[in-house]
Design a protein that fits this description.
The complex is a heterodimer of chains A (495) and B (170). Chain A has 495 residues and is α+β, with helices and mostly antiparallel strands. Chain A has 16 helices and 21 strands. Chain B has no helices and 16 strands. The chains are: A alpha+beta (495), B mainly beta (170).
Chain lengths: 495, 170
Amino acid sequence: MKLRRVAVANRGEIALRIMRTCREAGIEPLALYSEADAGAPFVRYATAAICVGPAPAAASYLNVEAMTAGAAALHADAVHPGYGFLSESPLFARACDEAGMAFIGPSPECMDLLTNKSAARRTMAAAGVPVVPGYDGEDQSDAALLDAARLISFPVLIKAVSGGGGRGLRIAGSAAVFLDQLAEARREAVAARGDSRVLLELYLDRPRHIEVQVFGDTHGGVLHLGERECSLQRRHQKVIEESPSPALTANQREEVCQTAVAVAKASAYCGAGTVEFLFEPATGRFYFLEVNARLQVEHPVTEMVTGLDLVRMQLEIAAGKPMRWKQSEVRWCGHAIEARVCAEDPETHLPSAGEIAAWAPPVGPGVRCDTGVERGSIVPSWYDPLLAKVICSGETRDLAAARLEQALLHFDVLGIATSIPDLLRILRHPTFVQGDLYTRLLEEELDTASHDQAPPDEVLLALAAISASGADVRGAPATSPKAPDPWREGAGWRN
Amino acid sequence: MKHRFRSATVTLDLAMERTHAGWRLQTEDGRAWDLRAISFADRRVRLCVIEEDGAERWIEMPARRAGGSIELEWNGMVWRFAPAGLGATEPSAPSGVLTAPMVGVVAEVKANLGDVLARGQAVAIIEAMKIIAPVNAPFAGKVTAIHVQEGDRVEMGAVLAEVEPEGGIS
């Protein structure tokens, strides 16, 4: 089967990134957008676009019927779901299939298995893949769950069965607070996915988040592209990701990658997927967490160290081709680190929405910036706050980190607050520099520190320069005591 | 020429004086710099500091004037300053007027008109971009007004509800 027209059922940076590869492969990219994204860069980049509904995601990007109808109206022969939204919806995959369009991802049956975290854990445990001690029983009564938590031993992690993005996740430190935390987790889980069921897991000591990129094709081929470490998280959202992990020995790397390949084979995996593990450095043990049956936000770090285009591989697999590479042909070179630049207050981490008044993403050797916004874009409050991903590579981790620091320092943004100051604090933190990461590092070591609120000298100088140039623009002698107030509206300022 | 600027956290007093080569900036704490080649156009400010040994150091950053204040970005941090007297306000005692901490949707209204709340009790939940922000009573009191319903879209600073301290406003 040859793909000619691929609809991207997503928005923002990932829509644009997928469309670029489509064009490189001679495929026409098609945009499905909500009213909030009319005229957005990814809509203009597509060869054809159609509005699928109003701004709220439930009415557009999460609306299976509207997205399927939109793709069909644009005569797509395949649909790429990106990440988030409908990317792991077996319902959407089936709807595309029924409308005669290929869904670029694993089969609906495979997704049924993997998106149900309890079922996935049972399958993996049966296949001999280690899982974190936990409870995933059918009995969801308070009493049964509390008994199970006591058996696992506290602290216990409460996770929604149909969770994701940190929703429906709670940590219960003791039996005394368990039922309260359980109620909160259930409430969030119902709000997010309409499913109140939870599972329990042992909460590990300074665990690191290690994940392995895998691919499977329709000819039974399975390949891994090495690991990524994503231990830097806040509220279970990844903040900085890198590859390779600074923690693993060659043997541990081989062990986790082979385990991931076994997981992919156990689920007859087809397409791009990520097998997530927790790694406990003290014991050297890996525990299977879950499979993300889609392209990940952080896939560029793998692209930077392998030189492969993961979207291109997805498209070829969807077209029924066998993978071009054998495992022994995959090569890794250097180190790559990605930072997620979000529209949020760097202190409170609350989202900031508004119009982007200035925007100049960084460039330079070893610097990649994936973004879906531009100067003049309105950042809507309806969707994920991700503005850009800055990915830097170098021969060593230190060089990649130094490049990332410089890239973030010289990333010009005005109009909205961004997480750049927060990212810079992380990059300069001694624990990050040493590579001694763990999943609670940000919450335990960074977010507790208070930050200097005094503006740096450069800001004083710039303010002074602006006031002086204001006086010059009006042509008034700046030393004149009668100089009009340059701050009054309509004082003839250039912006 | 003296200028006073206020941000959310600091007040700055800057004195600018013409010199033969450009400008001299002095701060309240007695520090001074010689500047020249100042430009502010196309949302960028650019200037050159002359060091004591005569060396030039150029400083450049995005900057713009927005709604009566000045916005600058340096090392990723966005600073917003208002000339003193034009919109800057002093911090005050906690208000019973509860406002949205961010742009979003009212996910839940947790209190009813007339409810008596404990300090810190949630009145409403605002949700945006996967983030849930509770809006809590700043003190113990009675709910005297609720201005939003579940599902309403709110701007940052929109009034959500009003709470009166227990025993009325003294």
